[in-house]
Design goal:
Layout lengths: L5 E4 L5 H10 L2 E4 L10 H6 L2 E4 L7 H5 L6 E4 L9 H6 L3 E3 L6 H16 L2 H9 L2 H5 L12 E5 L3 H12 L3 E5 L10 E2 L3 H6 L3 E4 L13 H7 L4 E4 L8 H9 L5 E4 L18 E3 L8 H19 L10
Parallel strand pairs: 1-2, 1-3, 3-4, 4-5, 6-7, 6-9, 7-8, 9-10, 10-11, 11-12
The structure holds NADP nicotinamide-adenine-dinucleotide phosphate.
Length: 315
């Protein structure tokens, strides 16, 4: 084993996460993939593992800058920032942190549905501003329990969302590439048909090029003027231009969003809308879950350095 095998890459790591990694394995740190080439060539050659956290692309060029690289351990289940084909071609293993965050992200989806339909932010403002005592009851909101929910992508997180919404007595519809075993949930072969059948369309797909604009302008149109779109997946999975236009022209009722095309500098048109609830990509952002993600990332790194099977490999 080399003396400094680990590169901690990404400004998004918290001090705590950074300290945990560097205490366990001798490491150096860079703020972004772009800073890699600034490292001394002798050091770059010794690095065998990258602990990665962030959205900036980590591609063939970055991999080529680290000739001894054998593992990219991603912090997060979504690894769309990492060029998986380039990694596989160079025999570089990639790991992620699945499952430990399912509950939190599903909770966030439910929170966005409730915040959007029951107008929780408007209610908070109504009380704080004194409008309650001045004008009385605020305009009525919309019922969630018993409504129709459509999940786009019934994977690990999508299923947790569906289970929670079933407990709200909602009628569950879903779209996945293949029909799945469910307790009688209604399958739709395409996202447009799904959007046309539901009140809340919840996007839980993986990100990346293959699912870019999967929720198309046509699907957003099919949702209709009483429909609400929730996205906790990646900004790329929804046609953001079509979504903004539909929200501005009130062709859909609203949206609850945790993810955007450009993060954190999101399209400012979102900030001017009163029919959206916006969150700062915080689906997994609880103390408990971030700790579990950090532990799983470290477990993958340790396993790789010890020559053991990787706990959560992607390739
Ligand atoms: P997962 O179990 O792999 O499920 C992903 C879903 O995406 C599956 O339903 C799968 O479809 C679908 N999918 C994958 N490739 C596709 C393709 N080429 N075309 C159409 N559908 C495709 O992943 P997960 O663990 O639930 O995570 C889902 C995503 O949530 C992550 O990738 C990440 O981007 C996002 N996420 C967001 C946050 C947040 O903070 N907001 C936190 C964690 C994760 P099938 O059902 O047909 O296989």
């Amino acid at each position: 084993m080399t003396d400094t095998p680990l590169l901690i890459c990404g400004a998004a790591f918290t001090e705590d996460e950074r300290a945990r990694l560097s205490t366990a394995v001798s490491s150096v740190s860079v703020e972004s993939p772009a800073a890699l080439e600034g490292l001394a060539p002798g050091l770059r050659e010794r690095l065998r593992v990258v602990a990665y956290k962030g959205q900036a692309p980590f591609g063939a060029r970055e991999m080529a800058a680290l000739p001894g690289l054998g593992l990219i351990a991603n912090f997060g289940v979504g690894y769309d920032a990492i060029d998986l084909a380039a990694a596989t071609a160079r025999d570089i293993r990639v790991t992620n942190t699945p499952d430990v965050l399912n509950d939190d992200v599903a909770d966030m989806a439910v929170g966005l549905i409730l915040a959007q339909a029951r107008c929780l932010l408007r209610g908070d403002g109504w009380v704080r501003s004194g409008r309650w005592s001045k004008y009385g009851e605020m305009p009525l909101a919309w019922k969630v329990s018993g409504a129709r929910a459509g999940i786009v992508g019934l994977g690990r997180i999508g299923r947790e969302i569906a289970d929670r919404l079933a407990a709200f007595k909602m009628e569950i519809h879903y779209h996945s590439r293949q029909q799945k075993e469910t307790p009688g949930w209604r399958y739709h072969a395409d996202p447009v048909s799904l959007a046309g059948a539901v009140d809340f369309l919840v996007v839980a797909l993986v990100g990346g090029e293959e699912t870019r604009n999967y929720v198309s302008a046509e699907a957003i149109a099919a949702l209709g003027p009483t429909g609400v779109l929730i996205n906790i997946s990646r900004g790329t999975t929804v046609d953001e231009g079509a979504l903004l236009a539909a929200l501005e022209q009130r062709r859909i009722a609203g949206a609850g969003l945790d993810v955007y095309l450009d993060e954190p500098a999101i399209d400012p048109r979102f900030q001017g809308l009163d029919n959206v609830v916006l969150q700062p990509h915080a689906g997994s952002a609880t103390v408990e879950t971030r700790r579990a993600m950090a532990e799983l990332q470290l477990a993958n790194i340790r396993a790789f350095l010890d020559g053991e099977p990787l706990p959560s490999p992607v390739n």
